[in-house]
Design goal:
This protein is α/β, with parallel strands linked by helices. The chain has a single domain, classed as 3-Layer(aba) Sandwich (Rossmann fold). 50% of the residues lie in helices and 14% in strands. It contains ten helices and six strands. A six-stranded mixed sheet has the order 1-6-5-2-4-3, with helices on both faces. Helix 7 crosses helix 8. The protein is globular. It is found in: Cytoplasm. This is Dephospho-CoA kinase. Its EC number is 2.7.1.24. Belongs to the CoaE family. It comes from Winkia neuii.
Length: 214
């Protein structure tokens, strides 16, 4: 992505979004989409997190567990019946077929829960769906905000979280490409630099633009 003085690039914002405004915030792993979502939440947006929904669906009494057991067997569960998230992650990032099966199970459940949440938006309210896999799930909002950072920066961030560089690269490769994300973007946020600069741009540029359409 070509840099500019502002970290926010407006591509194609809709003019008529109906009652309330649904915004999807997405980006590759390590790009920093949560920074943008948190900034929007601090400004008054109502935020739903796809990762949080996924954790609820895969908790010990979660709705997704029976399907996951049927698809992957006891090898991805602990002896007490809880999902072994680390073991499942190892499996799906090493086996594309397993990844496809996991997506087939989880994406519809997550998006259904998210759509229920977004449908509750009041007139003039901005609802944000923090979703890592916007392209992969086919989910679309009135405004799609893509958060971007160069791959070396993303790898560095993931290593700081405890992943090996090899695992970080594998997870990046397993997701959509930057070009695929840009193809569905209404707004692109360059999050390669200082966090404070991004948060300020969200408050002074992105948020007012969203309010105009809410």
């Amino acid at each position: 992505m070509v840099g500019s003085e502002s970290p926010i690039l407006f591509l194609d914002l809709p003019t008529d979004t109906g009652s309330g405004l649904q915004v999807a915030v997405s980006g590759g792993i390590g790009a920093g989409k949560s920074t943008v979502s948190a900034a929007l939440a601090s400004l008054g947006a109502k935020v739903v997190d796809a990762d949080q929904i996924s954790r609820e669906l895969t908790s010990k009494s979660g709705l997704a567990l029976p399907q996951l057991w049927e698809a992957f067997g006891p090898g991805v569960f602990t002896p007490d019946g809880a999902l072994d998230r680390q073991q499942l992650a190892k499996l799906v990032f090493a086996d594309p077929a397993a990844r496809t099966e996991l997506d087939r199970i989880m994406h519809p459940l997550i998006n259904l829960r998210a759509r229920d949440f977004l449908a509750q938006a009041d007139p003039g309210q901005i609802c944000v769906y923090d979703i890592p896999l916007l392209v992969e799930t086919g989910f679309r909002a009135a405004v799609n905000v893509i958060v971007w950072a160069p791959t070396p920066v993303r790898i560095q961030r993931l290593v700081k979280r405890g992943l090996s560089a090899t695992d970080a690269r594998a997870r990046i490769r397993a997701q959509a490409t930057d070009a695929q994300r840009f193809a569905v973007a209404n707004v692109v946020v360059n999050n390669a630099g200082e966090r404070d600069k991004v948060e300020k741009a969200v408050a002074t540029e992105l948020w007012p633009a969203l309010l105009e359409r809410a």
